[in-house]
């Protein structure tokens, strides 16, 4: 069972994840239409490149934009979740060992206590984000099934991985659940809002370019004051 | 059988406009709209061909995080009504239309119209507050285009689009009316300014000036003030006979074909008169329609206009900086004074630095609104909302947000270089009975403060 899960099924889900997200990014770019959107995408590189870059970078920095600063609670929760969500899949010791076995690529690994802190931070952030979904009148107006689905899809690998690390007696059960939930995340990511893993960058770059090329980039020197 | 007033066909004749105008308040027009069948196959096809990856991605990846809520002045002014959250507004209209692939009925389309014009001014502020970079204002503008094409557009904007198509202006100002008004304004001011001119259709000038039909029809002194300022600064300038109107109710209406016609008229004038630059009047949406979106409608692949197109504030900042316009520092506005940033040329064209440069010349006690510049709130009447009777109540509620912002500065004067903002501010003072705050375009302020060079003949009028 474990062999199947960590062998062919893992490779298959990883392929679906990578190819799926690449396809979404390519389709996004192919679907951009300079005429319909009235943005001269292929002109003014000197403005569009910094415009796109800063539109992404500023939003990757906590409190880097007025948007983040006006919503400090949401900001803290998002960043706590995403530190773990980005770092753990790539740099957790167990993961780097598998990666090296499969591909020969060796990445530095996070110390286990750091990994634990990141996991707890992400799990707490997820729980609080769920609570926010339940309590905030704004979010209650917006909530959909998929919002809950992606919260659950994200919660499961963190939780099962943490349990596997910390309950020696039922390690086998938790690690199997961890692999299954991780693969489910990978497989569903390209087809759900989890696709923001790449589409966040696409969408942010587009709006940065939009402002840089057309909406004032010339007078502002390319970069919009996010 | 009674005349068809509401249909997907744009108005292209004088008779069509008169018939619509005769229908007071659009009563019959909206009644007919309630019976207007949705061409679902056409709608599905329109969505298929015009709704591309950008919009679909925006709608798909919206995390429903709620961060756009507080960015919207309608949400704030309506006591945080969850139905006013930008994400909800677009998901329940355009989002739903796409999910149903155009299989929607008349009442759904009318609901979309109510939201697209009555609950969003396309100010684009929410786009600045979304972590995913989702610009809901852009999507509402797109939705307006779809609704216009299918006949679901507010009565006043159906008329506005027709005016542009028939008269080449947002109001029924013919070429003769326009040229007469230019001559009249010269006559009217010739005692005070003996050498004043409004040169019509002169080739090879530095500046070609374009303006708003409202100025011509309702307050022509604005045109006279523009002429005086060009005269006093020694600017070589002209106005075109045709292509002089820079506003675009077609843009508010979602009439993209009409927008293209407007642009082509102006570009034709540029080709005929070969000015070094074009200067547009103190109007926000006119700048958006002509300079920001306009080049695309005018067929400019690079998105740049054929010659530099300046908003009036850019031109004023330039002549002040170059010393061509000198103001008497003792006449500066003494009392507390604030500045209204128009979304269409500040957030959406970065001209806030020029208005601030101007403020440094004209105000002793300039106070910024909070928030301001790119982050400023819409006046409450943008996107065509000022002119739509059907949504007057919704607009008046929204105006409160700007009034609170103005009051918080303690200013008793709001410098307002934008027609829509000017109207909205005038109306909010009336609706909320605020008697102690004044507002003004730039031109009258500048005329009052300017120093007249000796080379310019001027006779003081008592």
Any overview of this molecule?
The complex is a heterodimer of chains A (226) and B (462). Chain A is an all-alpha fold. Chain A has a single domain (2-31, 49-216), classed as Fumarate Reductase Cytochrome B subunit, CATH 1.20.950. Chain A contains 13 helices and no strands. In chain A, helix 2 runs parallel beside helix 12 (196-213) and helix 10 packs antiparallel against helix 11. The longest helix of chain A has 24 residues, at 112-135. Chain A is globular and about 65 Å long. The N and C termini of chain A lie far apart (50 Å). With 462 residues, chain B is an alpha/beta fold. Chain B folds into 3 domains: 37-153, Fumarate Reductase Iron-sulfur Protein, Chain B, domain 2; 166-317, no CATH class; 328-449, Rossmann fold (3-Layer(aba) Sandwich), CATH 3.40.50.1860. Chain B has helices spanning 14-22, 27-34, 40-50, 53-61, 73-77, 86-99, 106-118, 126-129, 136-149, 155-167, 175-189, 213-217, 221-232, 249-253, 256-273, 284-292, 294-297, 312-321, 352-362, 392-409, 419-431, 442-449, and strands at 207-210, 237-238, 277-280, 309-311, 333-339, 363-366, 413-415, 438-440. At the A-B interface, helix 2, helix 3, helix 5, helix 9 and helix 12 of A face helix 4, helix 6 and helix 8 of B.
Q: Which helices and strands, and how do they pair?
A:
The complex is a heterodimer of chains A (226) and B (462).
Chain A: H1 2-6, H2 8-30, H3 34-37, H4 45-60, H5 66-70, H6 72-91, H7 93-103, H8 112-135, H9 137-142, H10 145-166, H11 171-188, H12 196-213, H13 217-220
Helix pairs in contact in A: 2-11, 2-12, 4-12, 6-7, 6-8, 8-10, 10-11
Chain B: H1 14-22, H2 27-34, H3 40-50, H4 53-61, H5 73-77, H6 86-99, H7 106-118, H8 126-129, H9 136-149, H10 155-167, H11 175-189, E1 207-210, H12 213-217, H13 221-232, E2 237-238, H14 249-253, H15 256-273, E3 277-280, H16 284-292, H17 294-297, E4 309-311, H18 312-321, E5 333-339, H19 352-362, E6 363-366, H20 392-409, E7 413-415, H21 419-431, E8 438-440, H22 442-449
Parallel strand pairs in B: 1-2, 1-3, 3-4, 5-6, 5-7, 7-8
Helix pairs in contact in B: 1-10, 6-7, 6-9, 7-9, 11-13, 13-22, 18-19, 20-21
